Amino acid sequence: MIQAAQEADIAVSLGYFPWHQSMALAQTGEWDGTIGWAYTKERANNFIYSDPIYTESVGFFYLTEREFDWQSPKDLGGFAIGVTKGFIDVKTLTELQKSGIDVKIQEFLDEESKIDALLAQQIDLALGNIDVLKRVIAQEVEPKQKQKIAHHPRPIRITPLYVLFNRQTKQGYDQAERFNKALRRLKADGRYQMIWSHFRQAHYNQ
């Protein structure tokens, strides 16, 4: 995202907030936009969506000492699942509850707290972006503890993510257009894939 912004000659200042707060700050115009959101009709009313910046795979992490497998939503019944506050996965799990599947939802403000709760056995499963949670485990978890965590190969969803620009300002439209043109150039000349390859190599091999 930073590379595309630089390519588009857009000055970027990054602020790091809990996900739900990031959305609120962008919606009120205190910040120009927010990074890494899936598409919903409700969000499209307030934001201009960029081209997809990344496709996330969202799955379950669990402790290896406890057997876990799932092939359909009903297999999730009886599990306490940690999810990040503000993510669309909260809605997904709530819909499972409404359908009669007994999932227990626990919301967290950040990914680190979710992994800590998993290791402390306060939840049975941590649901999240596989790339992000792998990075958290690689960087934040002690080596002996890392060996206790695995992730299930079946994702609950695979979803394109976008940068959201404030729809209420002319600047938002201009920034979205310039950003998209730059992002397309990065994808066309191979730099986009190189950036992601370097990211995964740097963050997973620790």
Automatic annotation (TrEMBL):
Entries under Pfam families matching the protein: SBP_bac_3
Keywords recorded for this protein, A-Z: Signal
Every Solute-binding protein family 3/N-terminal domain range: 4-195
Gene3D superfamilies in UniProt: Periplasmic binding protein-like II
Entries under InterPro entries matching the protein: Solute-binding_3/MltF_N
Domain of life of the source: Bacteria
Family statement: Belongs to the bacterial solute-binding protein 3 family.
PANTHER family reported for this sequence: ABC TRANSPORTER SUBSTRATE-BINDING PROTEIN (PTHR35936:SF25), MEMBRANE-BOUND LYTIC MUREIN TRANSGLYCOSYLASE F (PTHR35936)
Designated name of the protein: Transporter substrate-binding domain-containing protein
Organism encoding this protein: Salinivibrio kushneri
